[in-house]
From TrEMBL:
Keywords: Transferase
Organism: Pseudomonas marincola
InterPro entries for the chain: Glutathione-S-Trfase_C-like, Glutathione-S-Trfase_C_sf, Glutathione_S-Trfase, Glutathione_S-Trfase_N, GST_C, Thioredoxin-like_sf
Stretches assigned to the GST N-terminal domain: 1-87
Any one Gene Ontology molecular-function term assigned to this protein's record: transferase activity
UniProt key word RNA-binding: no
Positions in coiled-coil regions: none
CDD domains documented for this protein: GST_C_YfcG_like, GST_N_Ure2p_like
The organism's place on the tree of life at top rank: Bacteria
Nucleotide-binding among keywords: no
Protein name (Swiss-Prot/TrEMBL): Putative S-transferase
Domain GST C-terminal: 90-214
């Protein structure tokens, strides 16, 4: 059994998609980041960076004591190796997947995250920041679109790279992007959305958090970003 410490953010969705795709037994442990539950001492023992997602694997790959992990990329790599799914073992194929996983972790996630912040959460508009991150998000989607030319999935076969990128890319509209600028990405988004495991992961998200505006209140913003009321 795997405990998934989770909230309904793009990073949270990555791991729930994997668990659904792999058919692993897991239990959702909601961490409402708009209420400050990520700062609870018991959660910080699992995720010292006070961010979701995190997991505790009660049957770890080495057979030892329960294993706690934080950082979504590390979790995906661990679960893929444990289950033998969605991450090749052959060196070249594995590196192809991992470089796109790290591209999301180091590029698309941070840049699109800042895009979200300045477009949705900032207490007042900052035109330079909005333009900066909208343009950088567009550049990154251009990179993704070129990679997807002639491919069904990002690294060829379906992999953890797709699971990591999809939750960020599916909200392109809120990032002030034009999907017609990225036709290969648009087709890939449709393929991803049609996968039953992806649909189950997002259905679970609605059960955990039916309020899509839960992180937009002044109280939530103060907890998330240290903003005043």
């Amino acid at each position: 059994m795997i405990d998934l410490y989770y909230w309904t953010t793009p990073n949270g969705h990555k791991v729930s998609i994997f668990l659904e795709e792999a058919g692993l037994d897991y239990r959702v442990c909601p961490i409402h980041i708009g209420k400050g539950e990520q700062f609870a001492p018991e959660f910080l023992k699992i995720a010292p960076n006070n961010r979701i997602p995190a997991i505790v694997d009660h049957q770890p790959a080495d057979g030892g004591e329960p294993l706690a992990l934080f950082e979504s990329g590390a979790i995906l790599e661990y679960l893929a190796d444990k289950s033998g799914q969605f991450l090749p073992t052959a060196v070249r194929a594995r590196m192809q997947v991992l470089q796109w996983l790290h591209w999301q972790m180091g590029g698309l996630g941070p840049m699109a995250g800042q895009n979200h912040h300045f477009n949705r959460y900032a207490p007042e508009p900052v035109p330079y920041a909005i333009e900066r991150y909208v343009k950088e998000t567009a550049r990154l989607y251009g990179v993704l679109d070129r990679q997807l030319d002639g491919r069904e999935y990002v690294a060829g076969d379906y992999s953890v790279a797709d699971m990591a990128i999809y939750p960020w890319a599916r909200v392109w509209e809120g990032q002030k992007q034009r999907i017609e600028d990225f036709p290969n990405m648009a087709l890939w988004l449709e393929r991803m959305a049609a996968r039953p495991a992806v649909q189950r992961a997002y259905a679970m998200a609605l059960e955990v958090n039916p309020d899509a505006q839960a992180l937009l209140t002044p109280e939530a913003r103060k907890l998330l970003f240290g903003q005043g009321s």
